[in-house]
Amino acid sequence: MSRIFRSDSFAEAAKRRLRLPVVVVCGCLLAACSATRHIPSGQYLLSKSDVRIEREKQLTRDEQATRTELEQFIRQHPTKRFLGTNFYLWAYNSADPDKTNWWNRFKRRIGKEPVLLDSTLTARSAEGMKIYLNGKGFLDASTAFRVDTSGKKAKVTYLARQGEPYRIGSIRYDFRDRSLQSIIFSDTISTLLHTGDIFDANTLDDERVRITSFLKNRGYYNFSINNISYVADSTAGNRTVNLTMVVKRYMAGYTAEGEATLDDNRIYRIRNIYIYPDYNPSAAVSDSLYESRLDTLDYKGLKIVYDTRSKVRAEILRRTISLYPNYLYNADEVKRTYENIMRLDYYKSASILFSEAEGDTLLRDNRITYIGQSQDSTGIGEASYGTEHYLNCTIFCTPALRQGYSLELEGTTSADYFGIAATVGYQNRNLFRGVELFDIKVRGGYEFMRVKQKRNSFELGVSTSFSFPRFITPLRIDRYNRAFNPRTKVEVSYSVQRRPYYHRTLASGVWGYTWGNGKNSTFVLRPADISVVKLRQIDTAFLEQLQNPYLRNSYESQLIAGLSGSYIFNNQKINTERNSLALRFNFETNGNLIDGLSHLFGRSSGEEYYKLFGIRYAQYFRFDLNLARKFVLGPKTSLVYRFYGGWGYAYGNSTSIPFERLFYCGGSNSMRGWLARTLGPGNEVRWVSDYPTQLGNFKLETNLEARFPVWGILQGALFFDVGNIWFLGQGGYGEESQFKIDRFYKQLGFNTGLGARFDFSFFVFRIDWGIKLHNPNEAAGQRWIQNFRMQNTTLNFGVGYPF
Fold first, then answer.
1. Which residues, in sequence order, are CB contacts of 5 under 8 Å at separation 6+?
2. Rounded to an integer, what distance in angstroms lies between the CA atom of residue 357 and that of residue 389?
3. Percentage of residues of the chain with pLDDT beyond 90
4. How far apart are the C-alpha atoms of 107 and 97, rounded to whole Å?
């Protein structure tokens, strides 16, 4: 895709001198001067490409071609620019071509070679646009181009006229293989071709693909789009094209004279299914004794081929593979089998191959069977007539590294604060030969703050989990695991926190299920989510300073037990640059079952609340929504928007939500101009504290970030964050900390900043420098930052993108 750029003149640069640092202005001037200095005589620097389309009034919006569609055929694009300047050209031209020292090599590497106008490529670009429009049904389309020169620069304008389209008239079928006639006609309701539609070559190809897929799911293993062709007759007049779809027979081979022999398309069943669960391609090629060491185990239709001992249990393989002997070949089932194998997170690659079994042709009373809608108890239905053949299926699965390690870093620093956290993890992908994922993580964090005196805190915790590739339930459900990628996860964790004002321990246990729809959605349900928060020590002076009773009540030992779940949607594909949407919705409700049993069978101890095992149990609900939208603007250039909102409400046996379930702002993944837990609530003036404790039960935040390449692995970012926390519905001591719809926008915090991302492919190291613009917790009249000071900035670093 090309972009339209505007060259900066000296006058334009001078007008901006007051708004740009002197160094940047000088760089812009140098870049503008040297852009065409080294252009050879008689040639032109391509400075701009543009596409203009002459619209036809009778066309609908969907029928009109767009600039984006035609720009993909442009073969020459201007050299990209940096912040509106010819910096890359300047860097390249400033390098001495006769010298090969590191400085000149560096300038040539970060710079971009000038793109010189090539009239041949320009003509080919226009011709490519015309061919594209012809294929879209605009057979009278025309394209041209105009070149405008100024000095040594050239601007190319492509002119396209669509004209009136040709439309489909009659649609006929020519079945050279008559055995397919009834099968194809049974699904004509799904056809993509309709009388009156534009004669679009892409739609014709899509219909070939649709029919081919339809037949491949009904046993026609060798059928391909090449078995379908069209005859188009445009002599009918009135800009109509009469179509005839030709369905060809199967090419069985060649005669001795070299002539092709044709036969009706064949239907195939699966006969043998061989699976190599621990296939080693290197050993198979280099070790001459590899095949002789292999043994075979028959298990419910699978022939499991292994060396010494299979590292994956047979029942796991059977549950994963949805192919069965004597079933008709089904391309969708083959695809599902491949996806199931890869989603075990144990194999790094898998391949499913088919070969025809010799001498297994079978004629069954001129009737064929297939897996269709009208199935009996065996999963086999009845269709048209023909002959059946057999296929042998071989599945090669190459395991990934069984063990792995991970490291996560996160940090924040400002003038009087420093905090760092690290997580070290170990994973085993097949601990008990059931493709279980065992994961153990150790997390440590340290924070140091110096206000009146030195204060520090630390946290140390360990968590371990087992993830099983199936549902484990008391009742037998989904025996064949038709749910996409079902998993059961058991997790246990324990951590110790020592803060300046309190010491506490946290222990938790979770039993949950995860499944997906096979596309972009994932569902998580945790029917047992239990945590115990034990407050070991707390400073009474600290509690007395907390004027908000809601926050005081949150610093208590509590039992948290209930139900939680999540819905996750993400359509961003791995290693693809395209627009994407990521959404995560979390909810939890706690204490309801325990509260009901306590009221039925428990006895009041004279206190205002009930206890379980001597600990007050929490009763509340909480939900949050995280939505991120990514707009791709170019290679490694994108604009990302994120919205986050959450609310929690305590009731029944609780007067406040536990401390760790409250919301906060600030830190490396939130409002990056603030430290964690230092913004809000509302515009309440922050009381002097040696340790940040700003919390609330309601949060709104939005972020906007522009990401762009700088050089090599270095990528830059410009970001803007807006948000705050409040008390909604309960607990707010001061009016200024309460959320009110008519004033909340005045209480929002604003920050901007710069970021650097070092993309090492397997991980991204991130540095963000946030600058406060509006601090709602300052006194009235001082909330907008007018003078730049380092104490109004925060430096964050971490691994991975913030959202």
1. 47, 48, 78, 81, 84
2. 8
3. 44
4. 11
